[in-house]
What we know:
The complex is a heterodimer of chains A (801) and B (198).
Chain A: H1 4-14, H2 26-30, E1 46-52, E2 58-64, H3 66-70, E3 74-78, H4 80-83, E4 90-92, E5 98-100, E6 106-107, E7 113-119, H5 122-131, E8 133-138, E9 176-183, H6 185-194, E10 197-205, E11 217-223, E12 228-233, H7 238-249, E13 256-259, H8 275-287, E14 291-294, H9 297-303, E15 310-318, E16 324-334, E17 363-371, H10 388-406, H11 410-417, E18 426-427, E19 433-434, H12 439-450, H13 452-464, E20 468-477, E21 489-490, E22 493-494, E23 497-503, E24 509-513, H14 522-534, E25 541-545, H15 562-589, E26 596-599, E27 602-605, E28 612-614, H16 615-622, E29 635-640, E30 649-658, E31 665-675, H17 682-701, E32 733-736, H18 754-770, H19 785-794
Parallel strand pairs in A: 1-14, 12-13, 16-17, 24-25, 31-32
Antiparallel strand pairs in A: 1-7, 2-6, 2-8, 3-7, 4-5, 9-17, 10-15, 11-12, 11-14, 15-16, 18-19, 20-30, 21-22, 23-24, 23-29, 26-27, 27-28, 30-31
Helix pairs in contact in A: 10-18, 12-13, 14-15, 15-16, 17-18
Chain B: E1 2-11, H1 15-23, H2 25-29, E2 35-40, E3 45-54, E4 57-71, E5 76-85, E6 90-104, E7 107-120, H3 121-126, H4 130-153, H5 159-165, H6 174-189, H7 194-197
Antiparallel strand pairs in B: 1-7, 2-3, 3-4, 4-5, 5-6, 6-7
Helix pairs in contact in B: 1-4, 4-5, 4-6
Amino acid sequence: MATTAEYLEREQKLEGIGCARKRKEDPRFIQGKGHYVDDVHLPGMLFGAVVRSPHAHARIKSINKEKALALPGVRAVLTAEDLKPLKLHWMPTLAGDVQAVLADEKVCFQYQEVAMVIADDRYLAADGVDLVEVEYEPLPALVDPHHAMDADAPVIREDLVGKDEAGQGKRVHDNHIFRWEVGDKAATDRIFATADVTVKQAVLNPRVHPCPLETCGCVASFDKVRGELTVYITSQAPHVVRTVVSLLSGLPESKIRIISPDIGGGFGNKVGIYPGYVGAIVASIVFGRPVKWIESRIENLSTTAFARDYHMVGELAADKNGRIKALRVNVLADHGAFNAHAQPTKWPAGFFSICTGSYDIPVAYARVDGVYTNKAPGGVAYRCSFRVTEAVHLIERMIDILAQKLGIDKAEIRFRNFIKPEQFPYHSALGWDYDSGDYPTALKKVLEAVNYPALREEQAEKRTRGELMGIGICTFTEIVGAGPSKNCDILGVGMFDSCEIRVHPTGSAIARIGTITQGQGHQTTYAQIIATELGLPSEVIQVEEGDTNTAPYGLGTYGSRSTPVGGAATANAARKLRDKARKIAAHLLEVSADDLDWEIDRFKVKGVPGQEKTMKEIAWAAYNNVPPGMEMGLEAVEYYDPPNFTYPFGAYLCVLDIDRYTGETKVRRFYALDDCGTRINPMIIEGQIHGGLTEAYAVAMGQLIAFDAGGNLLSNSLMDYFLPTAVETPKWETDFTVTPSPHHPLGAKGVAESPHVGGIPCFTNAVNDAFAHLGVTQIDMPHTAFNVWKTIHELGLDNRA
Amino acid sequence: MQVKLEKTFPIAAPADAGWRVLQDIKGVAECMPGAQITQQIDATHYKGQVKMRLGPATASFNGELKIKSIDEGERKIELFGKGSDTSGASAATMNLTAQVRDGGDGRCEVIGVSDITVSGKLASFGGRMLTQVSEQILKQFGDNFTARVLASARGADTPQTMAASVPPPKELNGVALAWNVVLGFFKSLFGDTKSKSG
């Protein structure tokens, strides 16, 4: 019999699920050996650069290419007129709308793509951009979404005039995109009419941008002889890109190869199809030469997928004990000039209806109206699963506001309203089926860790001296792992994911998954899943993603879907292999398959010590000695359609101090407890949480895509757009509980977005809490020193006398 | 990005002299750095160009200037200018009302009210400095304009002597005002202190 020490040694050798294994990706990244799109250099490659609109709203009177074309090295200047014969001057968006590839007679946002210059190198292309002369006739710009549906509002989308539909149901104004309603309005209104107490608050999630380190770009290479198109692209969903490119170009999908190489951060910014990609592809097909297009930082911040811009009004009805009876939400969603919101097709407001949060709210109603404005299109991006950030922000602000009104402690009111552990699986008022959770345990653990009562005492004492100290709590529930094909698809393709594993004769393996890592460490963690499921060391398991010629069709990585969907596919594919391995082992050991027990890395005959076959031995046999009638080889494919979403959760607490003369905020402590179910690699989870919290800090404390009244963008360089470095970033303390998902093969839920979704309201709750005793209910983000100082100054707290 | 400015320049010269100089659009242009009127289209329409050297780069802007009204009695002129850089990456418009008021004792003052909108890259990167920089540019303009009026009052109003009276040859058109406002900011940003001190 094997001893415990032997078990342990064998298990450790696998470095499977639960092991804090070092990331396989890092050696190449930290040595500068990563291979990004801009590292792709192909012979004869041309470069594209985009001419962009200086106006937020203007008619194009003329475009003069002459001077640009006269510059030696400039090959072409593409405009909408050139794309028209190909029917490529407009393209479909993921949200059922269309978007101008190159502006067609009119520009609808500042920095909109007007023309694309193709030249021999990127400097010539940039020079060419300066030589393209565009004459504009400026039109009044619509910047404030609250005025989008005014009777006299400028009409942004002339192509849609007279149409009562823009791909997402009925619309009521030329600048209206859709109205989405969920819940029981009549029942909700009835409860509000008779409730003991109600609160109502406008809460803004301002427009921000994920600003990944690497901007978007591609290299399109069309081989005229073979009729094949290869595109190296910064995409979080390469297979979806292949399908879209096939639909747009008419090339069969089999002749299109999309490769996402190393990606320097995505955060949702790299989900959409952008005009620059289309321009490069068209140019490559026309010239039969590779064409590279890489965004500058300014272009990235100005044009490719922003996030949020949700103008929300939340209302809670409760009894006098703070027990919530109903939630009512009205949202005005600013989608910019084209509805290019990345989302599953049937969800115009994403999963915003998760806005009942971690609380047992019997009745709710939510309504979202999407409108056009003269701003860049996109939306939904930024480390969150389809509008969950906005939903969590709303409910976490509202519950604090309710607590303030009733004089109930902000932790206590959460305990009174939590969905209880015994209520799972829990069906929410707005239609979701929460898989598992234990919210009170998580919050209790956090409160004990930080000695919450002592913090409140300290705060009370400081308030007597006029000092500003804030304690923010956020007990969030995420919804990730999109998603079951019965309710989630992208352009008609169900949101499953896939894995293909081949075990080689000598016991090493390659796995290909339909997702694509952008920093999440898939090459490390998927190998760990296979190691545990198959009993082969993760060190010898290669994980490959991002090449549509080799990986099975998958929907990509965003919305924390890799572990819930791709991870499940990986586990199931490995299990298929293990089943086959069991039969081979039975054949080799001359016993029935039922007589075998699986033990870490081998099958053992029950009750017969020493009668065993390791996975390595079985792999060898798979290629020379399989049972009669069995197919040779050891290979499996799994397409996993999740039965439900997963619902990770967490309890966060932030303590901060505010300088009442300068408005500067110092985060003293941030304690983050996450429950993502089964933990595959604790070190990677911690890294993801650090990253997500840092981006949450960025959003809460400084990031804003700002416009002036004329629609000019005021924050599209890193001079103005806040990107926290190690200098600004607070210290993070992390903790966890484990409540596995009952429907996921491994019990895992996904984690990367939780810290962002939960972190933002935690910071903003802390800032608001610092002023709560003065009657303040809502200070919108970003909480820059200047903005905080304005609140201080209005309240007269900076008076030194 | 929009900014409204009002500025008064007291000049130790009679109002008639001030008014005479103010009506000479080309002459007024010469009071602003970096600009020139390239073409007079008709009595009230001009084309102009602003060239600016920003370190190694040269920026060039084209624009149109229109005299909206001239009121002899009030000694008031209304100008509208608009322009964009050659690639169309930035654009600006300006409404300018300038009036010469008699201050008595052979003195006058010029009151300028301008309303400038800037869009595109200039608005994104220079917008927040627009007010401060506009003030500085206007100050330079005021100094040069004053020198011109004083010269005119001395009777030295042949083009040659006029030019000589204005230290280094500088130009202005309506559009240049708007351009220089923001370009001045860029120059100061890149360490060219001359644009600040004039």
